[in-house]
Amino acid sequence: MNTTTQGHQFINGEYRLGRGGTAERINPATGRVAQSLDYASVADVEDAVGAASAAFDSWSRRTPGARADHLLAFATELGTRAAELAALETEQTGKSTRMSHEFDVPGTIDNVNFFAGAARNLQGQAAGDYAGNSTSMIRREAIGVIGSIAPWNYPLQMAAWKILPAIAAGNTIVLKPSELTPGTTLLFAEAATAAGIPDGVINVVVGTGREIGEALVRHPQVVMSSFTGSTAVGRRIMEMASETGKRVHLELGGKAPLVVFKDADVEAAAHGAVAGSTINAGQDCTAATRAYVHSSLFEKFTKRVAELMDAMVVGDPTDPDTDMGSLISLGHRDKVASVVQRARDSGASVLAGGLAPEHPGAFYRPTLVTGATQDSEIVQQEIFGPVLVALPFETEDEAIELANDTPYGLAASAWTNDLNLAMRAAAQIQAGCVWVNEHIPIVSEMPHGGYKASGFGKDMSSYSFEEYTNVKHVLISHDTDVHKEWQDTVFRQR
Ligand code: NAD
After folding, report:
1. Pocket probe mutation, ligand 1, options 42, 216, 228, max atoms within 8 Å of Cβ
2. How far are the Cα atoms of 275, 336, 352, 397, 480 from residue 311, in angstroms, in the given order?
3. For the chain, which terminal residue's Cβ has fewer other Cβ atoms within 10 angstroms, N or C?
């Protein structure tokens, strides 16, 4: 990608220079300027939506098999760019190179391959003769131009989660990545074009949420706003989308509980808690943030989690030995640090971390807090950093009640070897995903989406097609009678 001369908007199959001014992008791990970006203007959004509209007719009419062939070629093309994608993902987010190479890039390619297959399996109810003397059938149709807005935590995977179900179902899309991390989304769109996906099917506009995000949501030719980001912005999007009555799909914040029951394997739960709370430096909407631990295991669990956290290598994200890189910005790091400090000030204890090393990069050590109260900020609010709060419980009912006691409901885990208890927990925890004796694994075949303030609608899996298609009922009469019997109800043939 020739980022300096070609511009940072990808519209109608080519890079363009945005007309909305310029801004510097910072490498969060070094604190240094990484590049100067051109931003889109509202006129560029207009062009991108125009390109997506022009491409819709032909793309939506292709057979599922033809779209699948394009997606398979796209997956192959991404494979040839895996190293470049991983390096750029690490540079723009500060995440460890192991995450980029072993999680973000292969996960994205797997998603492309999944949707190549899923495109050929868009299903509806079987045809049936429900009204008598006629057959009803379902047509599942693409809905039009999708406007998507994505966050900075997993820029490449979020672009994939938004773009793939939309285009596999025959829609075209304009995506606005976070202005902090647009690089791999642009490369993703460029690779799609190189693989033969027609111009205008995937467009990317780069700019601020306030200006470019809002212009995209408000655009009358955009039929659906698909958003992943914070709950506050998601609510604003819903409000704006109501102006034109468009469909909304919201993947919002999370505050996942990790519940360690009395019979759990403490060592496994401690490992799960550390991996689950520090993945992507805790900037993961499904990250383990609240550990509720049976009081009989509490001391053993917290001691082990603190040991494992203290042993983690935090630093240069490009070093393969690094476990955890930087957070997304110094400003965000300071917000995380201030939540921990306020918890300390209110009497909580910090058993591991709680430290921001002296460095121009946005680093923060994996942190374990105990002694906070259930109603405190650190337990109730999304922090989006590598911070786990542990609280003890006595009974199963209490554990479930505490797990459900935040506004969010995206993901949760239950740690137990009692099958009946695992089934009760899976049923009673209000979240879009409940892991048992695990925390984090996601797969392309299974849906990802929230309950409560974590939003609605699903990413990944065939369930995501529900968001990106219209279901149409077609009824075909079996006869050529001029007057049908049921019409007597309205007017009798005289
Ligand atoms: P954010 O809400 O600040 O920004 C997300 C995107 O919205 C960015 O592209 C931003 O430019 C844009 N935006 C901001 N204001 C806007 C506005 N008024 N109109 C239109 N667009 C606007 O979120 P973030 O800080 O980038 O990401 C972190 C958040 O994302 C966390 O809350 C996290 O839980 C959430 N998240 C959720 C999921 C999920 O699947 N549920 C996945 C990843 C991240």
Report:
1. 228
2. 12, 21, 10, 34, 79
3. C
Per CATH, the number for 3-252+454-473 is 3.40.605.10
pLDDT over 50 (residue 1): no
pLDDT tens profile 46-97:
999 999 999 999 999 999 999 999 999 999 999 999 999 999 999 999 999 9
Report whether residue 365 contacts ligand 1, using a CB cutoff of 6 Å.
no
Tens digit of each residue's pLDDT (9 = 90 or more) over 178-233: 999 999 999 999 999 999 999 999 999 999 999 999 999 999 999 999 999 999 99
Give the model's confidence band at 5: pLDDT under 50 very low, under 70 low, under 90 confident, else very high: low
Whether 180 is in the pocket of ligand 1, judged by its Cβ within 6 Å, is no
Q: Taking the domains of the chain in order of start, what are their residue ranges?
A: 3-252+454-473, 256-436
Q: What is the CA radius of gyration of the chain?
A: 24
209 lines ligand 1 (CB under 6 A): yes
The tens digit of pLDDT for each residue in 463-482 reads 999 999 999 999 999 999 99
The single residue of 89, 91, 214, 251 carrying the catalytic annotation is 251
Distance from the alpha carbon of residue 150 to the mean position of ligand 1, in angstroms: 6
Query: Is-catalytic flag, 251?
Result: yes
Pick the CATH number of 256-436 from 2.40.40.10, 3.40.309.10, 3.30.1330.40, 3.40.50.300: 3.40.309.10
* Distance (Å) of CA 436 to CA 35, 163, 421: 43, 30, 10
Say how far apart CA 457 and CA 189 lie, in whole Å. 24
